[in-house]
Amino acid sequence: MKAKDSELMEKIVSLCKRRGFIYQGSEIYGGLSGTWDYGPLGTALKNNVRNLWWKKFVTDREDMYGVDAAILMNQNVWKATGHVGGFSDPLVTCDKCKKRFRADKVEGYDLKAEKGKCPDCGKGDLGKPVQFNMMFKTHAGAVEDDSSISYLRPETAQGMFVNYKNIIDSFHPKLPFGMGQIGKAFRNEIAPRDFTFRSREFEQMEIEYLVNPKDWAPTFEHFRKEMLDWTKQIGLNPVNVYENEIADADRAFYSKRTIDFEFDFPFGRSELYGLAYRTDYDLKKHSEFSGVELSYLDEETKEKFVPHCIEPSFGLDRTILAILSSAYTEDNMNEEVRAYLKFAPVVAPVKVAVFPLLKNKPALVEKAREIYQALRKEFGAVMFDDNGNVGKRYRRQDEIGTPYCVTVDFDTIEKDNTVTVRDRDTGKQERVEAAKLSDYLKSKLN
Ligand code: ATP
């Protein structure tokens, strides 16, 4: 049973705060719109996703090079790409309540006629849009003049393109090969909304995969499949994931093909990821603006050309939100409504929790702690809990999505050295020999 979509978002936001997944940024000062702080469980969830992505798309592949480029870049990078002139959204202001909106996201706003009604007060008119540049501008160094302007990067992609030549010089890779990066990106969004979905500071996981232009189509297809495979790996329900082929007229002018991967978020179907064939646009522009040659010499054919690029782009925070939305489940267990996070074990922030049946029986506590320490070595993310009764502990673990709970009771220490292992999704309990516990959990968690 899924909670009603209108309430689902509120329930997820409240669970995230209560249980230490995600908090409003700068909360004690009244917050800063569009910023979010990940608490211990959110950080663990994010790290799991980040590590899985890096493994799947970088370390498990021979053709990928990982980079971690600086957030602040020479301002000419953004002049070359067109971001300084054109990375903007259409901003409209209500003539009555003075609220500001992104024109293309206001329902009913007519982009051609350039008019619409205020979605907030309902009374005012939204006039002609002005272009609002979304890059956060700053100055690098003590002198604040035009030469010291820098920007917080609005995407991680360019940190890879500007290192193309370094990778070629250090590693001499043959085409096709790619660069991968995970890192923060910043956009001064006009209207941050829908929890972390549209934030002003967020994290991206991006690949710039370089090919001979004659090979772009099969490479595009390869990454399309890999991206779908990834959504399954992290536990998103395939029926909630859509591919939206972007029409010629709606694509960025340099892109020859773009697919947006969309997801049924609680607030509606929206973009999760993008996959674009960017041609040789970025490398050509950087070559033109920097004066550095960025072509590739095929030593076999002696062909010299600027490689073309396929870009799979993933938002990490939107991934976390999609995982949370997919995982949030309500059912009836023991005649009570239970809300829990049905995480795929690979992403679950806590894999196993260990309890002594009673906390005032030293022999139970000692045995439980012994098992807890052993499992920690094996699985890392293991929690010890002896607070309240076992039913309450199950509830707490269900709420944070822990797949298995292990309870040490009197049979463990007095009879047969077995423990109970309880399954989050079914609530079923099994007795397992303590000596075989680690293998049992390994087979279940994998
Ligand atoms: P949108 O149309 O939603 O503004 P976009 O098409 O501008 O997104 P891209 O520039 O393609 O997004 O960025 C790549 C990915 O980065 C997106 O698919 C998304 O997952 C993530 N992303 C972009 N903007 C934001 C944001 N403001 N907050 C959180 N994630 C974002």
Describe this protein's structure:
The chain is of the alpha+beta class and 446 residues long. It folds into three domains: 6-74 and 140-324, Bira Bifunctional Protein, Domain 2 (BirA Bifunctional Protein, domain 2), CATH 3.30.930.10; 88-133, no CATH class; 350-445, Anticodon-binding domain (Rossmann fold, 3-Layer(aba) Sandwich), CATH 3.40.50.800. The chain contains 13 helices and 26 strands. It has helices at residues 5-18, 40-59, 75-81, 83-86, 157-161, 164-171, 216-233, 281-290, 316-327, 362-379, 390-399, 410-416, 437-445, and strands at residues 22-24, 36-38, 64-66, 72-74, 88-93, 100-102, 116-117, 125-126, 130-133, 136-139, 149-152, 177-186, 201-211, 241-245, 257-265, 268-279, 296-297, 304-305, 308-315, 328-333, 336-341, 352-356, 382-384, 404-408, 418-423, 429-433. The strands form eight sheets. The chain has a seven-stranded mixed β-sheet with strand order 3-12-13-19-16-15-14. Helix 2 (40-59) packs across helix 9 (316-327). The longest helix is centred in the N-terminal third of the chain and has 20 residues, at 40-59. Adenosine-5'-triphosphate (ATP) binds at residues 155, 187, 189, 198-199, 202, 204, 271-274, 313, 315, 317-318. Residues 155, 187, 189, 198-199, 202, 204, 271-274, 313, 315, 317-318 line the site of adenosine-5'-triphosphate.
